[in-house]
Sequence to fold (937 residues):
Amino acid sequence: MHVSFFSTCLVDNIFPDIGIDSVKLLERLGCTIVFNPQQTCCGQPLANSGYQQKAKKSMHLLLDTLLEDEADYIVAPSGSCVLQIKEYSTLFADDHQIADKAGELAAKTFELTDFIVNVLQKDRVESTLRAKAVYHPSCHMTRLLGVKEPPLTLLANVAGLELVPCKGQDKCCGFGGTFSVKMADLSGAMVAEKVDNFIATGADCVIGCDAGCLMNIKARLERLNHPMQVLHIANVLAHS
Amino acid sequence: MSIQTSDLPLHDRINTELEKPFMRKAIANAQDLLNQKREDVFKELGNYEQWKSQASAIRHHVLENLDYYLDLFSSNAEQAGAHVYFASTDQEATERALAICQAKNASKVVKSKSMVTEEIGLNEVLEDQGIEVIETDLGEYLLQIDNHDKPSHIVVPALHKNRDRIQQVLQEKRGYDGDNLPENMTRFVRHLIRKDFLEADVAITGCNFGVAETGTCTLVTNEGNGRFVTTVPKTQIVVMGMERLVPSFKELDTMLSLLARSAVGAKLTSYMTLFTGPKKPDDMDGPEELHIIIVDNGRSKVLGSPFKEVLKCIRCGTCMLECPAYRHVCGHGYGALYPGPLGAALVPVLAGYTPFKDLTKICTLCGACNEVCPVQVPLYEYIYEHRRIIAEEKQLEGRLEGIAMGLYGGIIGNAKLYDMTTRFASVANISPKIGPLKQWCKNRERPHVATQRFRDWYKITKKGQK
Amino acid sequence: MMHTNKKNFLLTVSRALGREAIADNPTSIDLPQAVQEEYYQNTTAQELKDLFIEQSRTAGTIVHECALASLNDTILTVASELGEGPILIGDEPLLHEQQTAAALSDKYTHVHMWDCARGRENNIDTAESAGIGITVAQFALAETGTVMVHSHKGCGRAVTLLPTTTIFIIKETTILPRLTQGMAWLAEQSQDGLPASVNYISGASSTADIELVRVQGVHGPIKIAYIIVTS
Fold:
């Protein structure tokens, strides 16, 4: 199975290990990976701030880049960026040709865990993590993309991993892309409460599926000098 | 009050609220408690999604036929003996209400909780003419006597005040000498307001739902003030937003079945009062005259816009209870009468983008509101679209932001430029904390940019393999 | 002839909806299946009564059951437990038949009946000074522990609002499943004219406006009791 990997800009620049672990994991599961270096960013930071026109150049570029290799699927380790890609057809609704292409891309683009569980049909990936962890369901991925169960299914089958519940578990961490800098005080208050709730669980680590939320959570934990580890689900699943 | 409730700029409002630990804890507790109760009652009811889609379809149908149902409602209300007036603007509505009060030589007016009367600034107009106006909802009353403080939540308006503050206000303004127990303070206010109820010349109420087929108005309360205002005063004025209709009692069942469950996590409120016309000749109580003022005040503009579904809203406040941003800044942070996701979706199109462009910023686009709205208003989509209109169509965000965003768009729109820029992005790890980084770092450490990007690793590794 | 002001107002609405004239008829209402019809299909009368009692008690309402023969005794017991006189009684056929006013007069000095011959102020004053109001509910709703009363010649709105305590008499046979049936009753009544005021009451008046602490008794009764008359 040929998979074109969309790393997302945050993973490319801030958390390359998430990309590396995703690629290793997918290869272990029998996929052949291509990474097209023409890819940049899905344009979400601009679009969510209201600047859709200014985002369209990057969206065009990503459309062409991800379809270029004619892979069977496109996989990204981020529900939020996948959601953005799936919205391209609406954003380009006034241009049928592009909208059709966007539709084609949307149909074969999957978030990493959704891909493993629902395309590769694997509930377990033979991985081990001896730790007590709290899971953070990212808003875009669970509510808007609708991918709720796959990460939980996969995490439930990680050897040695104990998942603990947390107060306000499905509440937003306060990242919100440009919200985190435009509304920094409010965003900071939100992540502070979120992280306090994580810490109260006594977990060793927090696991999530979106680099944006994880960056936010990690930055708060570091401000508190707290040893809780922040892991992307790819980091967990790649290690047996 | 009017739609705008604060003169402070956005960040001042937000920071003022963030520095109120009691308020934040109270709102957080209210969210947690009421959301749990709501989940429980809906679980018990079952068929959550079917109920919501039915309620949404009813409200959608009413909006699609609003001219027809307004005609039907007003004809039937008149048939039942009510006087019906149509007010296109806030001013027309307040003038009408004032004229009715003056015709009755009213010196004292009692009100039950109503958002639309606050929207049109009715109290101020009446008070300016020397008419005493008493808010009878306990929460609204406590705000009113505390120098007209503003509501922090549309259902539980005084949630931001703790019992000590309330005790102090009652002492200073009403001579209360009891303790700070909610029960005792409530009892004290009960006696005060009861006197007002008995003395008032005119009662003013809102209307949760008007039933078009019969001209009936519905008032939903827990405290019983909705009943009092329809029992003792001889003249009653109902002020209703023009979209607040259902076709018949059959649809009212659906709406009422969802309203209390959504608003306060209860199956029903203590009272649902349905009144049709003034009292009958052999009724010994109830209003002798019933006046219904139907208000547009921007609603027809919303109806003709791509945002018309926001008029489906039944003012339950669930979106606010679910909103993670509202949680920290309450209604006051928004500076608008309608706060939270509803406010962000409604107010810019109801009352103008320029004064209210900042409402949509108090949102992480997390989508939690969409999931719980009992009438399926696409709040997320509307807020998203408002942001586009504000930034690109109306260009209200300032040149600097536009330039910065354009620059960013230019970089990510060009693979070579992106590659060049990000190759050296790790200098940000030692750059001074200015601009967005400074903002980010108020409560967090700076994110560490990798010296070897993912694409660099991929290039090296895959070359080695080949 | 439609008033100009109304016409202009409605036309603005019509135009917002993309038409040049006020719609003569509504579009057909395309509702998903009426979900409420699925509820309480096979529930027995006994089950409805049990549910009604359970829901009412959860809301803090005191519930008693009695046979018709012991109604007055039960009212006396409940009244003495919950409050003090004076007592105000709705002029209802059931209470007439049972001579409830006379029975209560043995124990209470002031027992009044809502009386349309005595005029507005008089009736309201009596209600305001009464400690206990008693009337018969038109029907009850099991799902929510609700009773329905409406204004009429024999019983005003004040009877169940102004006294500190209200006692509702409910005939066992009038316990309906849920609001759906309550609304169906209104739809039926609207054929011959609705009462001016219809009230669905689910417990005592209450508030949670101070720190979300529930307090019973704000503007309406502080205590509520139901007496179910078995048949």
The two ends of chain B are 72 Å apart (CA to CA). Chain B is about 50% helix and 10% strand. Chain B touches chain C through 99 residues (CB under 8 Å). The first strand of chain B starts at residue 83 and ends at 87.
